[in-house]
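Sample entry follows:

_____
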Amino acid sequence: MDNWDPILLERLAFNHTVIIFDNRGIGNTTSGEKGFSMVQFANDTASLLDVLQFKQIDVLGYSMGGMIAQELALNYPDRVGKLIIYASTCGGKEFIISQDVINRLSNGTGSAMDRIERLVHLFYPEEWRNENPNYLKDLPKTTETISNKTLDQQTEAIFNWTGVCTKLKNITQPTLVIVGTDDVVTLPANSLLITERIPGAWLVQIKGAGHGLMYQYPEQFNKVLQTFLSTTTPS
C-alpha cells in the first residue's frame, strides 16, 4: 500500500473514496493456504469488496495489479464500474517482454529488497534519471514487509498466467489503458494490444515516462484519471 505515490492518492482522494490494499503475502496480509495466481488475486479482491460491502467500484490496477484488474473485470463484471489498466499486459503467449526484464524478475539471489532494487532503476528512463539524480529519495518510503518466498510466488504467478488476451472482447466496462512511452518493464506494445481488444477503450501514452509514470508525473497522471472518471458513458 505504501508504494502508491502520495501526491496521486491525495489528488484522487479529493473527490473520490480511495481504497488501497495489500495482496496476499505483502505487509500485514498473510499468504493464506491457496496458491498465488491472477485468478486467485481477483477472487481475493472480490471477497474484500464483500467484506467492505461495496457492490461496485472503479478499479485501477498497476503492473501486476493491471493483470488482476482484467481478471476481476472478466470474472466479476458486476463489481467493476470503470476499469483503468496502468502499465500492464494481457499476458500469456502474447506478453511482450524483454529477456533482460525476465532475467531480473527471475534472479532470486540476495534479499527481497536487493531483488526489488535491481528492478527499480528500470522504472525510469535514463534521461529522466540523469535530470533527477535524487529520484530514489523521492520514492514513497515503505514500512511494508515482503519475503523472498512471496516474490518467488508473485513471479511464478506472472509467468504462469495464461492471460486473457483472447477474452478482452468480453470486457464491457469503460476502460482506460495508460502507459509511459519509455516503459521497458511492460513495453507499450502490450497496452496497445489491450486497447485494440477491449471495445471502446481509451489509450493514453505519456511521453518520456517509464514504468514509474505515477512517480515521475503524478499531477499529469491524475488529470488523465480525473478526465476519464468524470466522463459519462453513452447509454
Observations:
- The beta strands are 57-62, 80-86, 175-180, 202-206.
